[in-house]
């Protein structure tokens, strides 16, 4: 008898907490029913189904040491719209975790440079929590995070805690009356830190155009291709390497990613058009 | 040893990437080529861009996959760059096309022809898209008209891909008479899975196409029977999961064999391993060329 990989069996799960992050973004905490724990590697994702509306992939944003999982979701379509109408106590479906996460083994005892843009902080939040829990296993850790406006910054109430363990730098594209920090794209924060390019692993997640410019800058700073890792988000339908909806540079994002080494997807990142983007 | 001449197209081996499974991104075709595939059949192109069906579009069943991707593709505008890129890389390129009528098939074939494709595969058998695929292919007269018109207008190889039906051999024979250069047998088979807890079909499209080990013996029988009635080459397709399945197809009478769903389960390395294993099999059994294997189960 042949058994198939990744069967379509969404496990029932219950929403236990909902937190507003920004006007269009919420963090949902979810407990898998009949399952005492949920284990994953930071950077992995789940397929979440809202029964009757469909299924979509979401990065796991919570901590590896918790029994429940967290996802941070922006309302953009059918599935996320339906999820936003759900309340604490409602049932959803979960498959996963899927994909390759951040290269923890490679990062141990090295310096870590994390660069995130907008919602791209979600898959990196579980990594930040992991680093804080195992702080002595890593060298210097920098987190450079940019969002459109101060209101769009995710996880604001955790920044004070994070700053006690890692070097946190923030920027926004457009400030407001209260914003006293940096204004500009996240690449400008690379000018504020001096990293040892030889012994630092750079990790990024954000809009494709951000990763294009950040990669360019990291290369100009002297980072070798094999020390740069990126988490890609692509429209995904099957999540099991069948439909080909999410492929880049000859690779399936769903089963071979979402975290890739820059060396493997360079052609895709380099080909992201710069047109229409003003850049310092 | 493994080279074949498929209706005049020279292939380094008889393994062909089936349409659909790796999507429409050329980088994935290139990866199959780098792993040793003999030719590529592109994902099916239609006149207009199609987004495909909403999720869930695939589910695993006990002995295969059930999918209803919905012929997602960039439309006729997307054909030329894909074909030209593959040809530039020296890859034998068979372009899968699906029209709603003779005229649409002719339009698509014309783009394939102008882009220097080696052949077109006529998708007359997708079991889940309304007004396309199987709905056309079960109409023998229409199938014949489509093939005749393409052969009349373009100097290009034409391979209709036919689905399972009670008279598939007769339709294949009619295709041959109409001028087809070969036939592809078979496509996925229409199926359904119901989630008993939700009391409704799992796939958003309700029906899907069954692929994988479940359909392999069915495809072998279709190929075996067709071989006894046809003079044009048969390209077998359906549920290859191991190198032995490929040999079965050859022995049943196929000149080339398409693989698809297995790549989801076993990865691109499957291509390389299969070729290696078949070479070893041929050496150990004293077969000097693929030709010696083709149809040998009939003698």
Report the major sheet of chain B.
Answer: 8 strands, parallel, barrel
Residue share in helices of chain A?
10-25%
Q: What's the shape of chain B? A: globular
Helix proportion of residues of chain B, in percent? Answer: 25-40%
Identify the CATH homologous superfamily of chain B.
Aldolase class I
**What is the level 1 CATH name of the largest domain in chain A?**
Alpha Beta
Low-confidence stretches of chain B: none
- Structural class designation of chain A: alpha/beta
Number of domains of chain A: 2
Extract low-pLDDT stretches of chain A.
1-6
- Side by side, the strands of the main sheet of chain A go 10-9-8-7-11-12-13
The helix-and-strand class of chain B reads alpha/beta
Task: Describe this protein's structure.
The complex is a heterodimer of chains A (280) and B (299). Helix content of chain A is 20%, strand content 29%. By secondary structure, chain A is an alpha/beta fold. Chain A starts with 10 loop residues before the first strand and ends in a 10-residue tail after the last helix. Chain B has 299 residues and is of the alpha/beta class. Chain B is built from 10 helices and 16 strands. Chain B has helices at residues 26-34, 79-88, 102-114, 134-137, 140-153, 168-178, 216-227, 243-252, 261-266, 269-285; strands at residues 4-6, 9-11, 15-17, 39-41, 58-61, 64-67, 93-97, 119-124, 157-162, 183-185, 189-191, 194-195, 200-201, 208-211, 234-237, 256-259. In chain B, strand 7 (93-97), helix 3 and strand 8 form a beta-alpha-beta unit. Chain B is globular. The mean pLDDT of chain B is 95. At the A-B interface, strand 4 of A face helix 1, strand 5, strand 6 and helix 9 of B.
């Amino acid at each position: 008898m042949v058994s198939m990989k990744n069967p379509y069996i969404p496990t029932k799960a219950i929403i236990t907490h909902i937190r507003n992050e920004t006007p269009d973004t919420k963090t949902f905490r979810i407990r898998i029913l009949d399952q005492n724990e949920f284990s994953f590697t930071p950077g992995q994702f789940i397929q979440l189904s809202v029964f009757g509306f469909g299924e979509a992939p979401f990065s796991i944003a919570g901590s590896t040491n918790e029994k429940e999982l967290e996802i941070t979701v922006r309302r953009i379509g059918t599935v996320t719209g339906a999820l936003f109408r759900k309340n604490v106590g409602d049932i959803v479906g979960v498959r996963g975790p899927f994909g390759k996460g951040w290269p923890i083994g490679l990062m141990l005892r090295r310096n870590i440079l994390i660069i995130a843009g907008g919602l791209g902080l979600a898959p990196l939040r579980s990594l930040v929590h992991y680093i804080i829990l195992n702080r002595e296993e890593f060298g210097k850790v920098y987190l450079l995070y940019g969002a459109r406006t101060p209101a769009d910054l995710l996880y604001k109430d955790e920044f004070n805690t994070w700053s006690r363990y890692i070097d946190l730098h923030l920027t926004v594209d457009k400030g407001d009356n209260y914003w006293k920090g940096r204004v500009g794209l996240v690449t400008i924060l690379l000018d504020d830190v001096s990293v040892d390019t030889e012994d630092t692993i750079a990790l990024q997640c954000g809009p494709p155009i951000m990763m294009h410019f950040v990669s360019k800058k990291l290369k100009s700073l002297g980072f070798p291709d094999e020390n740069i890792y990126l988490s890609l988000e692509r429209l995904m339908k099957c999540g099991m390497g069948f439909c080909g909806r999410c492929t880049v540079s000859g690779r399936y994002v769903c089963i071979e990613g979402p975290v890739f080494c820059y060396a493997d997807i360079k052609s895709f990142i380099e080909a992201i058009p710069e047109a229409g983007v003003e850049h310092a | 040893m493994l080279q074949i001449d498929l209706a005049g197209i020279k292939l380094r081996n008889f393994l062909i990437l089936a349409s659909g499974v790796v999507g429409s991104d050329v980088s994935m075709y290139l990866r199959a080529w780098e792993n040793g595939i003999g030719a590529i059949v592109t994902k099916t192109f239609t006149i207009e861009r199609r987004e495909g069906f909403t999720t869930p579009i695939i589910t695993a069943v006990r002995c295969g996959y059930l999918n209803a991707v919905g012929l997602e593709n960039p439309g006729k505008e997307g054909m030329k760059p894909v074909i030209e890129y593959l040809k530039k890389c020296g890859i034998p390129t068979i372009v899968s096309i699906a029209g709603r009528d003779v005229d649409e098939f002719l339009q698509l074939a014309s783009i394939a022809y102008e882009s220097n494709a080696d052949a077109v595969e006529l998708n007359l058998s997708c079991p889940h898209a309304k007004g396309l695929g199987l709905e056309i292919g079960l109409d023998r007269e229409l199938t014949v008209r489509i093939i005749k018109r393409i052969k009349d207008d373009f100097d290009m190889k034409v391979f209709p891909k036919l689905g399972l039906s009670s008279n598939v051999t007769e339709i294949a024979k009619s295709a041959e008479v109409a001028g087809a250069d070969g036939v592809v047998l078979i496509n996925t088979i229409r199926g359904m899975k119901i989630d008993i807890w939700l009391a409704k079909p799992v796939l958003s499209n309700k029906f899907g196409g069954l692929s994988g080990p479940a359909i392999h013996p069915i495809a072998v029988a279709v190929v075996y029977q067709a071989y006894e009635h046809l003079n044009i080459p048969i390209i077998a397709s359906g549920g290859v999961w191991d190198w032995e399945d490929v040999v079965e197809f050859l022995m049943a009478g196929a000149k080339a064999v398409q693989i698809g769903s297995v790549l989801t389960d076993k990865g691109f390395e499957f291509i390389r391993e299969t070729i290696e294993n078949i070479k070893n099999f041929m050496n150990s059994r004293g077969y000097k060329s693929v030709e010696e294997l083709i149809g040998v189960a009939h003698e």
